[in-house]
Design a protein that fits this description.
Length: 213
């Protein structure tokens, strides 16, 4: 654990709080991609199966349970209580290609060929592209509510801070070597590039975020 990892986790938690605040405060899931949320739940479930076999720390275990529980709760809200507000006409990204991409790379790049290791590798590759349906949805609609934009920014910041954490660990931990994690993380951070730019520009101008369609 280091400061960058801790700040990354904090940014991730803040993104979840912002997402739940947006849904509960507005009583709506307009602008939120159900497909991205489903992918994130799949990411957390496949990554944290080691909850049943490995204990690292209370903090680690609580964070894993938090991510699974909150992702499940978001899906529950979107599929039940606020189902009528879900904009499925704009949430049209074909996620089967993303899942297929993650499966292929999980079979080609695991550190070891065990079930948990392959599933963990699958979760890394899937997380790297899970935001695409959300970004595609925003680009299709052309604009984004403030809370939604804050949520996506915090989510992207979490991964950017994790990238700094990897650099820190590489410099100060002699045996630290996780190329799959690094490549997947760099890909994920790069996908936020355009969004970060328009987000910062919108905040400088004091206007609602609008993306080119």
């Amino acid at each position: 654990m280091n400061l960058f990892r801790l700040c990354g986790d904090l940014s991730h938690v803040i993104s979840i709080v912002l997402l739940l605040l947006k849904i509960r405060a507005t009583r709506s899931c307009v602008g939120i991609s159900l497909k991205t949320q489903a992918l994130y739940l799949l990411v957390f479930v496949t990554r944290y199966l080691d909850l049943f076999v490995t204990f690292i720390s209370l903090y680690n275990s609580l964070m894993k349970v938090l991510f699974i529980a909150t992702s499940s709760y978001v899906l529950y809200l979107m599929l039940t209580k606020y189902r009528q507000t879900y904009d499925k006409d704009h949430d049209t990204f074909r996620i089967q290609f993303l899942v297929g991409f993650a499966i292929v790379l999980a079979l080609l790049t695991p550190h070891r060929y065990t079930m948990l290791e392959v599933l963990w590798t699958f979760s890394l590759w899937l997380e790297s592209v899970a935001i695409l349906p959300q970004l595609f949805m925003l680009q299709t609609t052309g604009e984004c509510e403030n809370l939604t934009s804050h949520y996506i920014f915090a989510l992207g910041l979490y991964r950017a801070l994790y990238a700094v954490n990897w650099v820190y660990r590489y410099l100060f931990e002699p045996d630290y070597w996780q190329p799959v994690t690094w490549v997947a993380g760099i890909l994920q951070t790069a996908l936020y590039g355009d969004f970060f730019y328009y987000y910062v520009m919108s905040k400088r101008r004091g206007k609602k975020l609008k993306l080119p369609t």
